[in-house]
Amino acid sequence: MDNHVLEPSLYVIKGIAILDNDGKRILAKYYDPNTLSTAKEQKVFEKNLFNKTHRANTEIIMLENMTCVYKSNVDLYFYVMGSNHENELILVSVLNCLYDSISQILRKNVEKRSLMENLDVVMLALDEICDSGIILESDPTAISYRVALRNDDIPIGEQTVAQVLQSAKEQLKWSLLK
């Protein structure tokens, strides 16, 4: 029996992927540099993952020493990967947040075509959910609200310097055109 106790870590997520119904990558982010560090390894892993899950009737799978939770809808497969000792409930909450955020962003039209048309917003949502493997947010309403904001809707105190300068340039341009 192993008495090795793992220390808790904020780095929960090893990767997040969205694949189409042929197993081709639409969007994927891998956060652990020690696992699946090359694009070739990632593609092979995604192919194996899709082959194991596209006909399965479960929500969780262990593959290549990782716990993978997934959800499918119409022609898309959503995956969240963590280490083999990670709590599955945490991974499922991230998966549900990802799926529900995308569903809200795409107005419940979660399919490949609409996802591709809004890929920039979906990528922002993914970045709002997880950064470097650390879960930042798990509320889909908060995620969809953040990615839907336009620069002029953000209070000046919360804008970056670049956003403030861009806003000032636009106001100056409009005042000169009058």
Automatic annotation (TrEMBL):
Domain of life of the organism encoding this protein: Eukaryota
Chief location: cytoplasm
UniProt keyword annotations, A-Z: Cytoplasm, Cytoplasmic vesicle, ER-Golgi transport, Golgi apparatus, Membrane, Protein transport, Transport
InterPro entries referenced in this protein's UniProt entry, alphabetically: AP_mu_sigma_su, Clathrin_sm-chain_CS, Coatomer_zeta, Longin-like_dom_sf
Bilayer topology term: Peripheral membrane protein
Pfam families: Clat_adaptor_s
Protein localization: Cytoplasm; Golgi apparatus membrane; Cytoplasmic vesicle, COPI-coated vesicle membrane
Domain AP complex mu/sigma subunit: 13-151
Similarity comment: family membership: Belongs to the adaptor complexes small subunit family.
PANTHER family: COATOMER SUBUNIT ZETA, ZETA-COAT PROTEIN
Summary of subunit composition and partner proteins: Oligomeric complex that consists of at least the alpha, beta, beta', gamma, delta, epsilon and zeta subunits.
Function description: The coatomer is a cytosolic protein complex that binds to dilysine motifs and reversibly associates with Golgi non-clathrin-coated vesicles, which further mediate biosynthetic protein transport from the ER, via the Golgi up to the trans Golgi network. Coatomer complex is required for budding from Golgi membranes, and is essential for the retrograde Golgi-to-ER transport of dilysine-tagged proteins. The zeta subunit may be involved in regulating the coat assembly and, hence, the rate of biosynthetic protein transport due to its association-dissociation properties with the coatomer complex.
Protein name as it appears in the record: Coatomer subunit zeta
Organism in which the protein naturally occurs: Daphnia magna
